[in-house]
Amino acid sequence: MSAADRKQVREAIRKYTAAAAWEAGCIRENRPADFGYVRAHLRGYILSKYMMPEGECRSDRIADLTEASLARMMKVTPELAAQLDTARSCAGATSATVKKALLLQAMERELQIVLPAAEAVAAKDVTSMARLVVRCMGQGGGAARTVD
């Protein structure tokens, strides 16, 4: 990778990190939480965390967004990325599963909420995730707990 390529990657990371922080701030400051507002900004947040421009994946399904993000990073089609995602960690998790888990952890930290793990994992699309986020925001929020 050339110096110019590395610079371009660093700039993209900065751009998407700033965008995700802005989207998270919009969600956090929206009290009482308005579902439509949270849903729109949550989609923007997920796309930013996945380093994808709006329009690259029109699906609302989190699995589709995750696969599209992996495909973008691997520079292959989403279908091929799903086929190639056979390498598993010690725990038996695919790259897509790990990516979603990291997204959920970041959401808790950056939105300053605690997501019920089973419900967060079960949320299949941005709309259901937004409903969960709105519900958690209504429960007082506070800093996300950490496990030492």
How do the strands and helices of this protein lay out in sequence?
Blueprint: H1 3-29, H2 35-49, H3 62-74, H4 78-84, H5 95-111, H6 117-122, H7 126-137
Helix pairs in contact: 1-2, 2-7, 3-4, 3-5
Secondary-structure element order, N to C: HHHHHHH
Number of beta-strand segments: 0
Principal-axis shape equals: globular
Mean pLDDT: 88
Structural class determined from secondary elements? mainly alpha
> Any idea how many domains?
1
**What is the oligomeric state here?**
single chain
Number of helices: 7
Percent of residues in beta strands: under 5%
- The separation of the N and C termini measures 38 Å
Mind describing the biggest β-sheet? none
Q: What is the helical fraction, as a range of percent?
A: 55-70%
Low-pLDDT residue spans:
141-148
* Estimated radius of gyration: 16 Å
